[in-house]
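Researcher: Batch entry, complex prediction.
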Amino acid sequence: MAKQLAFYFDSTACTDCKACVIACKDRSSLPVGVNWRRVYQYVGGSWMPSQYESRTMVPINVFSYSLSIACMHCEKPLCAEICPAKAITKDEQGIVAIDTSKCIGCRYCEWACPYDAPQFHEELGVMTKCDFCKDLLAQGGNPACVDACVMRCLHYGELEELRAKYGSNVEIAPLPRADITLPAFVLTPHKSAQATGEGTGWLDNLPEEL
Amino acid sequence: MNLREWSLVFFTILGQMSVGSFLVLGVAHFFASRKKGVEAADRLSDLALLAIGPVLILGLVASIFHLGNPTNAYRAVANFGQSWLSREILFGVIFAAVGGLYAIMQWRKLGSTAIRVVIGWIAAIVGIALVYSMSKIYMLETQPVWNTLMTPVSFFTTTLLLGGLAVGAAFVANYAYVQRKDPGCADAQCELMRDSIRWIAIGSIVLLGIELLTLPIYLGYLAADGGVGAASIGLMIGKFSWVFIFRLILAFIGAGVFGLFLYQTALSPGREKVMGNLTYAAFVFVLIAEIMGRYLFYATHMQITI
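Model: Structure tokens for the complex:
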């Protein structure tokens, strides 16, 4: 059994198809407005008139890359620390999950989480979040998002093993700095990846997607 | 802003006003009893003390409206060991219970004076812990605009400013009541009221000074932070500029201008009518200013997020 489960995402292979988002939404019957997994499309650069040919534009540093992000199942989960109702806990596999029967719906965790992981379910009046599909894991299966990934660029495993293989840098724009909650996440950055805090791009998603 | 955030505005403002009133009343009662004896001091402050309870309970009820699942509300204190939100609720309930017990004992003169003084001190300390917990809730590492010393400083300033002026207004109302019911002791009560209001006026001017001095320091800090800090200032002077400006104007008139007139009228006997109306006006102006300030507090916060 893993000590700390983690998602691994290969940003070089993602095509931004969002099958992971839909698989998650379908599997957990999430309402409109709640997306435990989102694909952030980070784009930048611009176009300028060509010096050599009239009426022609040339690209300067145009780039686009995507990050598929759900709960980071942080090693230091601020949401669990500050939850007044002790509704959010981290289990022996490192999975951070919320027991909605204990949640008071104060939405304090929403203010604490830098990854938008806990989301408010209007109808139920409680916070909900990714639980790593731990019931599927218990049956020997994979999280729904991982199985749905068309490009096979979303995986999961033991954090230490994934880090040994792919490195530990997850401070890639638009992700926030990692020292606040120590996210259990491993990433292969895209060739255009920009460092957190130094990004020159912006999110190109529809507001409904995030 | 939605119902949820308005409920937090009213909960924090009413909670802090209750604590502030309790503290200011304690100080006023102490000095009044040294000057005119315990009985006169009781007559000055007992009715005001009874008024604090309903204000606090109104605040606690308002806080329930920000819960999505109020049937679980009792669980809010479960994480007392780690979460400042749990501590806030616990201190809020204890303050209501001990403060209420004190008010009833003081009103009915139950128990010895020594016991009452001890209970009063416990309530005061729990009240201070309540306001401190309230400020710590917002000091999350992912909330850089809130995660500064400014949060506790402004919460305690609000506590004392609103508490002081609420007590002043209560003393004015109490004096009108004493004049009708018990004209024999109106002279002594009048003197105590004028003394208290003079000091409340001084306190209000000092607290306004603290608010006006810390604000530019805080804005400078936010601006220097660049990113989210600058974005927060952008909201204050952009979308919410009218709240920002009116709040400062109201606080300046209520605590500063009225405070100065209050100080003057409190020095000259015979002008109680003017002083009373000024006290009410100052309280209402500052109350609205502080509600606007708290609204801004929630409306302009910035989160470190994706």
